[in-house]
């Protein structure tokens, strides 16, 4: 589901807000799969929205992050790359 916003089961009003977490990756990337699991868990626990973008469909993302995927952004700013530290991600969202 690259390029499509994913949301937690928050109330409808909360799903209209821009997702706080963005995962930038690509299909077939095992580190992206690992990062997705952590992000899904943290997003569900904290009630924040998240989305996933495919680096292969966006030349700007490819140029900027090609050697770092998966990349995690929090509130639009780079937070992590290669691995997602769950404790650190939770702290950034607090």
TrEMBL record:
Pfam families tied to this protein: Glrx-like
InterPro entries, sorted: Glutaredoxin-like, Glutaredoxin-like_YDR286C, Thioredoxin-like_sf
SUPFAM superfamilies: Thioredoxin-like
PANTHER family (alphabetical): GLUTAREDOXIN-LIKE PROTEIN C5ORF63 HOMOLOG
Protein's UniProt name: Glutaredoxin-like protein DUF836
Species per Swiss-Prot/TrEMBL record: Rudaeicoccus suwonensis
């Amino acid at each position: 589901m690259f390029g499509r916003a994913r949301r937690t089961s928050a109330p409808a009003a909360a799903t209209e807000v821009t997702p706080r977490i963005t995962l930038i990756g690509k299909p077939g990337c095992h580190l992206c799969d690992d990062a997705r699991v952590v992000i899904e868990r943290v997003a569900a626990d904290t009630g924040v929205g998240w989305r996933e973008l495919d680096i292969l469909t966006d030349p700007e993302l490819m140029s900027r992050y090609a050697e770092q995927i998966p990349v995690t952004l929090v509130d639009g700013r780079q937070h992590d790359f290669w691995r997602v530290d769950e404790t650190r991600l939770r702290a950034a969202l607090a």
